[in-house]
Specification:
The chain has two domains: 30 residues, no CATH class; 37 residues, no CATH class. Helices cover 59% and strands 0% of the residues.
Length: 83
């Protein structure tokens, strides 16, 4: 497929000139292309599955989350620094 040397603004102007069905067709093609692009977040999936400290880190995050509303954040920080 040949590549055209036009700007995004020119493409938008051309699409605006299309009838509604043409706009829907363009939208469908663009939507399909975006859906099939590689998701960068998936590269991180399972990154910590073999990390022996992962469960400890999750427990710490949960403790901070639970303690935060009770004003106990400083106590948790002190415990962490004492380790």
């Amino acid at each position: 497929m040949p590549t055209l040397d036009i700007t995004v603004e020119q493409v938008i102007m051309l699409v605006k000139q299309l009838p509604l069905e043409g706009k829907k067709a363009v939208f469908k093609v663009l939507q399909n292309e975006l859906e099939f692009q590689e998701n960068p977040w998936l590269k991180l999936a399972g990154k910590y599955q073999d990390d022996p400290q992962f469960e400890e880190m999750l427990a710490y995050i949960e403790a901070v989350r639970v303690a935060w509303p009770k004003g106990q954040r400083q106590e948790l920080n002190d415990q962490e620094e004492a380790k």
